[in-house]
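Exercise 7b. Backbone tokens:
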């Protein structure tokens, strides 16, 4: 059974490797311009109360490298957001199996691809705030002190805190999957793909070739 450790204990266990992993993860947010720092004094009480926590997880891979993964704690937003407004289309098992059978029968060329930081390519539509705490807040300041340092504040335990507004969709926010699906769908249609059978399956005819795109999560 794996012991669940908090971020401080993880950093003690992994040392400098853990610091580098976290820095790499939050640098992606900074590079993609996913965060806009907000001054605590300029925010309304409702905005501060509804701000999501930013969670950071550290794990050691089999090869010994340390992987950091950050996400928003989107659970509080379930109170304000309905499932119908945030659900993205997902291919059914039946449709996926049928496409795989067609690919095998017709000896089609199949490519599986992954989009790094997929959700961060989509713009956030709603006004969503997030709270960075402790080590994460300190580290993001290192990336660009001029932008972030003036917005840092400290709680009663002298813990550094930073409010940010999300400019890009972030993993575990309720609307992230839908926003990315909209962006991907629009991009594929611009490239000539049209939806068939199900909304998350796109097809494009070009000369004697048929291209199918199947979005899975």
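Sequence design result:
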């Amino acid at each position: 059974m794996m012991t669940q450790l908090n971020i401080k204990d993880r950093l003690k266990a992994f040392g400098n490797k853990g610091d580098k992993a976290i820095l790499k993860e939050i640098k992606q947010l900074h590079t993609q311009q996913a965060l806009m720092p907000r001054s605590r004094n300029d925010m309304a009480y409702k905005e501060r109360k509804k701000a999501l926590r930013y969670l950071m997880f550290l794990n050691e891979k089999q090869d010994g490298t340390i992987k950091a993964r950050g996400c928003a704690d989107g659970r509080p937003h379930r109170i304000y957001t309905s499932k119908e407004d945030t659900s993205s289309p997902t291919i059914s098992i039946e449709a996926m199996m049928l496409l795989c059978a067609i690919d095998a029968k017709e000896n089609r060329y199949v490519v599986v691809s992954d989009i790094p930081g997929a959700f961060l390519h989509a713009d956030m539509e709603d006004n969503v705030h997030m709270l960075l705490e402790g080590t994460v807040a300190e580290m993001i300041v290192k990336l660009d002190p001029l932008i972030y340092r003036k917005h840092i504040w400290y709680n009663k335990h002298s813990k550094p805190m930073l409010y940010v507004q999300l400019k890009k969709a972030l993993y575990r926010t309720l609307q992230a999957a839908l926003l990315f699906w909209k962006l991907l769908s629009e991009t594929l249609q611009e490239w000539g793909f049209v939806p068939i059978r199900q909304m998350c399956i796109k097809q494009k005819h070009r000369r004697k070739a048929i291209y199918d795109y199947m979005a899975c999560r």
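Instructor comment: Residues 16-31 form the longest helix (16 residues). The chain is about 35% helix and 25% strand.
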